[in-house]
RNA sequence: GUGGAUGUAGCUCAGCAGGUAGAGCCCCGGAUUGUGGAUCCGGUGGUCGUGGGUUCAAGCCCCAUCAUCCACCCCA
């Protein structure tokens, strides 16, 4: 084989795209029902949008970006996530001027990582961001909405919600200092990654999976204990609202997000069904980000959902038979033009998917193909039919006799099943 | 970036100790001159990931390389 896809990129084949469309359709539909508007963003940004927005010391920026210089030597990066681009676009286009925004976007993200189950270098996210609403009711709105998304997708039983609060700027800084003070004397007992993070991003040490590090951290200062009154009240209010809405959740005090812009509430929807890559959707509040990227101080909150992973769950949990056609038109002899005419009439009068047989093949093989296409009906146009100015209609998914009908009756018979079966 | 496993037909795989490739599914045709889904019969299809090396002889042994998968790491 001469050419193959670039490592970590993937082809989504016709046998899977119908399911993709269904899943994307459900998610987008829910977002629209909550009043979110679509924004379309470029795949490419100035590298600085991410290094400043996401954070210089994050793994994402440090080692996972596809970064290159353009022909004039300007550093560009394929977007590794959506929030920073979205904020940049909102500032640049004046979308945040004295008004709130509920936005969603959809598309591929790129991260230079080692591929494995549930993780590729190109993946698709649907994300949403809300700007200009400081209160916890937005955090609740987002999580209630996501619970609905998973429920309506039919994967609600496979995911669960974990939440935590990182505190707002000041309390977070105080906690960070306390944590460093506690860990520094024990530096030698930490694993290598955590030692490095002690200087760059100490909060990340909290969710280390190394057992010895976990034990050390467990004896250290407690993030929750450092929350100021505001953050504490906000988090409690959120938990109350989730309870009131019947959205199950678990407070995970070790939940720390990998991106620097998060403040206060952070959350992660996780699953046990995807091996090591257990996060399906995550997000939180990022009140300082707009300012950091050059805008006015505008509060924000949002999430990113990994559709590839959602698809894996959907595939495992939701039985579906996706078909390629509703009506398959078989034709014999020289009656191609007449068959095409009938097919067009059906398309004109219904929303059904009509495939007309093309190329060679006897009636037998045409019906075989009709069966394979998943069509519910076969329409046959041959000598006998044309002689009577009618067509034969045969139901492929139920036991019933084949009948010869004129076009008017054909349309009447197909009419009741006129919604496409896709 | 680290570790382990795997690359043979479109797909899933077999190939025993080195002797120039097999099965099932799929697809095509026939049994059924204009009738699918079941059954039976026949057929198409392979530079054995790639490049070197060892050997009279390599799918099998050696080296390199690429890719995939799983885990670490990280995240969606």
Count all strands and give the number: 16
Provide the low-confidence segments as ranges. none
By CATH, the topology of the largest domain is: BirA Bifunctional Protein, domain 2
What distance separates the N and C termini?
Answer: 34 Å
What about the largest sheet? 8 strands, mixed
- Taking all residues together, what is the mean pLDDT? 92
Highlighted features:
single chain, 422 residues, BirA Bifunctional Protein, domain 2, 2 domains, RNA-binding
Explain the overall architecture:
The chain is α+β, with helices and mostly antiparallel strands and 422 residues long. It folds into two domains: 14-168 and 228-317, Bira Bifunctional Protein, Domain 2 (BirA Bifunctional Protein, domain 2); 327-417, 3-Layer(aba) Sandwich (Rossmann fold). It is built from 16 helices and 16 strands. It has helices spanning 14-33, 47-53, 59-63, 83-92, 136-153, 169-183, 192-200, 211-218, 223-226, 229-245, 289-292, 307-317, 336-349, 363-373, 383-388, 407-414; strands at 37-38, 44-46, 67-69, 75-78, 101-110, 122-131, 159-165, 250-251, 263-271, 279-285, 300-306, 327-331, 354-356, 377-381, 391-395, 403-405. The protein has an eight-stranded mixed β-sheet. A five-stranded mixed β-sheet has the order 13-12-14-15-16, sandwiched between helices. The chain has a three-stranded antiparallel β-sheet with strand order 2-4-3. β15 and β16 form a beta hairpin. The protein is elongated. The model has no long low-confidence stretch (mean pLDDT 92). The protein binds one RNA strand of 76 nucleotides through α3, β6, β10, β11 and α12.
């Amino acid at each position: 084989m001469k050419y193959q896809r670039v490592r970590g990129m993937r082809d989504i084949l016709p046998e899977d795209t119908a399911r993709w469309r269904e899943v994307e359709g459900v998610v987008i539909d829910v977002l629209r029902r909550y009043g979110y508007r679509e924004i379309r963003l470029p795949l490419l940004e100035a590298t600085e949008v991410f290094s400043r927005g996401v954070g210089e010391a994050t793994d994402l920026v440090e080692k996972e970006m596809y970064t290159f210089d353009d022909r004039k030597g300007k550093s560009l990066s394929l977007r590794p996530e959506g929030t920073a681009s979205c904020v940049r676009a909102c500032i640049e286009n004046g979308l945040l001027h004295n008004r709130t925004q509920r936005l969603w976007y959809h598309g591929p993200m790129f991260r230079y990582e080692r591929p494995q189950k549930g993780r590729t270098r190109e993946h698709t996210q649907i994300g949403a961001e809300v700007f200009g609403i400081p209160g916890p009711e937005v955090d609740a709105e987002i999580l209630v909405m996501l619970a609905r998304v998973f429920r309506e997708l039919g994967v609600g039983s496979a995911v669960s919600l974990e939440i935590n609060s990182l505190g707002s700027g000041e309390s977070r800084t105080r906690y960070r200092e306390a944590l460093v003070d506690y860990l520094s004397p024990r530096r030698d007992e930490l694993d290598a990654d955590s030692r490095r993070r002690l200087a760059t991003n100490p909060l990340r040490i909290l969710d280390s999976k190394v057992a010895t590090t976990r034990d050390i951290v467990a004896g250290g200062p407690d993030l929750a204990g450092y929350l100021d009154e505001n953050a504490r009240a906000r988090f409690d209010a959120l938990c109350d609202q989730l309870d009131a809405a019947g959205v199950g959740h678990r407070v995970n005090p070790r939940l720390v997000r990998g991106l620097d812009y998060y403040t206060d509430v952070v959350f992660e929807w996780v699953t046990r069904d995807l091996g090591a890559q257990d996060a399906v959707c995550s997000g939180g509040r990022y009140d300082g980000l707009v300012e950091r990227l050059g805008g006015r101080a505008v509060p924000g909150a949002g999430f990113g959902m990994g559709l590839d992973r959602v698809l894996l769950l959907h595939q495992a949990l939701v039985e579906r038979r996706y078909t390629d056609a509703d009506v398959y038109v078989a034709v014999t002899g020289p009656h191609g033009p007449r068959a095409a005419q009938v097919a067009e009439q059906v398309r004109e009068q219904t929303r059904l998917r009509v495939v007309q047989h093309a190329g060679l093949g006897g009636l037998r093989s045409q019906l075989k193909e009709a069966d394979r296409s998943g069509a519910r009906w076969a329409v046959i146009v041959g000598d006998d039919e044309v002689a009577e100015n009618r067509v034969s209609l045969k139901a492929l998914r139920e036991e019933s006799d084949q009948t010869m009908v004129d076009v008017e009756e054909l349309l009447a018979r197909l009419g009741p099943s006129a919604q496409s079966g896709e």
